[in-house]
Inverse folding.
């Protein structure tokens, strides 16, 4: 746990503090906000991305002779044994990274006119990139986590792990700059990337979404219910805020519609029902 705390401070809290310090001060009278829509889409994207990770931890095991995995809404397990099982613990992070890259590319390359789709794509990119990259970073220091087991199977020495850690942090920084420029702001200049109000809004949004996530992640221990989302969200927020601090041009105010709250609520309701009524008992492959 101490390693997780110190690493989260280094790759999450530190860039966040630096990003806030470098951001433009709030204009007089400006208020930051934590829009309900962003909170809900952040939570929905976390759930979908985490489940995507678990699904791709299960599928390769199901295709491996001797392994019989079981998929849950927030976890997986298996019976049997195979010499490949430690390596296969890394497949979830790979799938999550691919998801994050795909949605990040969609944000910049596809004209998503709907504010609902733009918000959904932004938070799916955020979750995909930072759920995977934070897991890689932790795996270089914690041999017992999923990526740690995969790296041990590959026989990486300490120098190689430190190099991988540095590459993961560099990727986080690049992703933060990319996402800051793709942020779907519809609330005007005071809350747009580059300003301190954006930093406060981003932090409040990601932290409040953790409260929404609790019923989706039960029943698990406190570390899995709250600490995992906290690490992902603090890390992602830190790098996006630091990336936004490099944006000096003020984005013109937008009077476009906000993303649909109804779509977010229905998505979360459907996900909760699927998780707790169907997947909670487990599905054997």
């Amino acid at each position: 746990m101490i390693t997780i705390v110190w690493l989260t401070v280094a790759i999450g809290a530190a860039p966040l503090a630096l990003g806030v310090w470098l951001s433009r001060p709030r204009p007089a009278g400006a208020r930051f906000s934590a829009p309900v829509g962003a909170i809900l889409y952040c939570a929905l994207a976390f759930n979908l991305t985490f489940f995507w990770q678990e699904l791709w931890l299960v599928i390769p095991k199901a295709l491996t002779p001797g392994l019989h995995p079981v998929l849950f809404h927030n976890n997986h397990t298996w019976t049997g044994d195979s010499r490949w099982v430690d390596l296969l613990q890394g497949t979830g992070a790979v799938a999550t990274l691919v998801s994050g890259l795909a949605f990040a590319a969609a944000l910049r390359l596809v004209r998503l006119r709907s504010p609902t789709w733009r918000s959904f794509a932004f938070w799916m990119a955020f979750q995909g990139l930072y759920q995977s990259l934070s897991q890689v970073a932790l795996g270089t220091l914690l041999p017992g986590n999923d990526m740690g087991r995969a790296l041990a199977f590959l026989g990486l020495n300490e120098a190689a792990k430190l190099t991988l850690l540095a590459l993961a942090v560099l990727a986080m920084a690049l992703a933060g700059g990319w996402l800051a420029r793709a942020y779907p702001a519809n609330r005007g200049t005071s809350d747009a990337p580059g300003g301190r109000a954006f930093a406060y809004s981003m932090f409040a949004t990601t932290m409040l979404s953790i409260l929404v996530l609790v019923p989706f992640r039960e029943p698990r221990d406190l570390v899995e219910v709250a600490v995992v989302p906290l690490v992902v969200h603090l890390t992602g927020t830190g790098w996006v805020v630091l990336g936004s601090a490099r944006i000096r041009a003020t984005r013109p105010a937008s009077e476009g519609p906000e993303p649909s709250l109804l779509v977010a609520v229905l998505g979360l309701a459907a996900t909760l029902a699927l998780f707790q009524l169907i997947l909670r008992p487990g599905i054997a492959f």
Remarks:
- The chain has a mean pLDDT of 90.
